[in-house]
Design a protein that fits this description.
4-stranded mixed sheet; about 25% helix; single chain; 3-stranded antiparallel sheet
Length: about 190
């Protein structure tokens, strides 16, 4: 079967959409949909403006991380620099902004690595991941509600953190595994 044939067969038609929450970062819509078998079902969809994440690589081949407390998981998380898109903001410009604000680094070389949906079962958030190289240190300027620790780690330290499950954030794991695969000699 052709992939497109399957896609066409399983589309869900939205019959009704109701906004039940409208917050600062997310909104929640309650949808009534018609399933491929003709039945109706309810879907809860989190609407998110999208986000960026930056795998910043120093001249020494280290990755730049930030540690910060994440209320949703009630713990400190070790992550690559990241942030949400402002309305209408270009993802590449957001990546440049977030890297500088959170870490104080600016990069001369940029590569778009991948864009992916973080949780497509219930949210439309798309994450745009960039690789930044040729870093120049400037002054960090985190948001007023961000309390960050900036760290740099080489592949050996990163592998240890992965083994200890110290890195638990998907937007960090995806580019890190790609980067480690690129480093295959480690």
């Amino acid at each position: 079967m052709d992939l497109q044939d399957f896609d066409d067969q399983v589309q869900e038609k939205t019959l009704e959409s109701k906004r039940i929450f409208d917050g600062k970062v997310i909104s929640l819509d309650l949808l009534t949909v018609r399933l491929p078998n003709g039945r109706e079902a309810t879907r809860e969809v989190v609407k998110h403006p999208g986000a960026v994440a930056v795998l910043a690589v120093t001249e020494e081949g280290k990755i730049v991380f930030v540690r910060q407390y994440r209320k949703a998981i009630e713990r400190v998380s070790l992550e690559i620099p990241a942030g949400k898109l402002e309305p209408g903001e270009d993802p590449f410009e957001a990546a440049q902004r977030e890297l500088q604000e959170e870490t104080g680094y600016r990069a001369q070389e940029w590569q778009h690595l991948h864009s992916f949906f973080t949780s497509p079962g219930f949210a439309d958030e798309i994450m745009h991941v960039y690789v930044a190289k040729q870093l120049e240190k400037t002054q960090a300027n985190p948001d007023d509600d961000e309390f960050l620790q900036v760290l740099e780690a080489d592949a050996v330290q990163i592998l240890l953190w992965l083994q200890q499950q110290a890195i638990i954030d998907a937007k960090t794991l995806v580019p890190l595994y790609w980067w480690l695969w690129q480093q295959r000699g480690v």
